[in-house]
Amino acid sequence: MPIVVDIDVMLARRKMSVGELAERVGITPANLAVLKNGRAKAVRFATLAALCEVLECQPGELLRWEAADELDGLPAQDAPVPR
Q: What pTM was computed for the model?
C-alpha cells in the first residue's frame, strides 16, 4: 500500500510505548498495532486527531505517501507473466 504509517517513528521520538499511546488515545493496543503496522484499511479522523494531540505532531508526521513499484497493486491478471 502506498500510504506508510510512521507512528513507530513518533513513538521513538517521544520515548513512549505502544501501550501508553493506546491508553492515552483511547484505543486498544491491538487496534493501534494494526494501524502502526500498516494493516489498517481506514482511520477515523477523531483517532488521527487524538494521535496527533497525544504525540504533539501533525498528521503528515504520521502518514506519508510512497510511490508503489510499477507492479505493486496490479491485479494478478494484469501483471506480466515472467519468462
A: 0.78
